[in-house]
Amino acid sequence: MTLLKVANCPSCGKVFQKNLRNLCQACIDSYEHDFNACYSYLRDHRKAANAELSNATGVSESRILGFIKENKLLLSQYPNLHYTCGSCRKPIRQNQLCADCRCRITRDINLLKEQEAKKLERGTGFQIRDRFQR
Ligand SMILES: [Zn+2]
Ligand SMILES: [Zn+2]
Fold first, then answer.
1. Looking at the 3D structure of the chain, how many domains does it have?
2. Which of 21, 69, 70, 76 would you label with 91, given CA atoms 20 to 30 Å apart?
3. What secondary structure does DSSP assign to 54-89, as a single string?
């Protein structure tokens, strides 16, 4: 006898038999249904933006973001769809972060590097001795 592997569905919390999608059948159905709704709306309205698509289909914007992030809806085909910056949630269409956040992070990294370099200049001798003692 094989034991059925069950888990709580991460989307609705119901106990379900584990499968490749890691969602219960009801959630898979609703996911497919929502995707099809978005897909067919976009077929007629290629230039729809996220909010319009959400209003027209009744699919939540966060689920639409999911479709885009999973590359089920391709930004290359829909000029006004977007996903959000991983840091500040601003709408973007390329990279993981918006230009502002990328700029800020590069600056922070450079600052850290500078600080590290200064620390090394000041304390190399001491740090080496320190390490030998341990
Ligand atoms: Zn579920
Ligand atoms: Zn950002």
1. 2
2. 21
3. HHHH---HHHHHHHHHTTSS-TTT-TT--EE-TTT-
User: Do 63 and 29 share a structural domain?
Assistant: yes
- For 47-57, how does the pLDDT look when each residue is reduced to its tens digit (9 = 90+)? 999 999 999 99
Residue-wise pLDDT for 65-84, tens only, equals 999 999 999 999 999 999 99
Q: How far is the CA of 37 from the centre of ligand 1 (A)?
A: 19
Q: Domain check: are 116 and 68 in the same one? A: no
Q: Cβ neighbours of residue 79 under 8 Å, at least 6 residues apart?
A: 46, 47
From the CA of 87, which ligand is nearest? 2
Residues 32 and 80 in one domain: yes
Same domain flag for 39 and 74: yes
Give the separation between CA 110 and CA 131, rounded to whole angstroms: 26
Q: Say how far apart CA 53 and CA 45 lie, in whole Å.
A: 9
Closest-lying ligand to the alpha carbon of 29? 1
* The residue type at 58: G
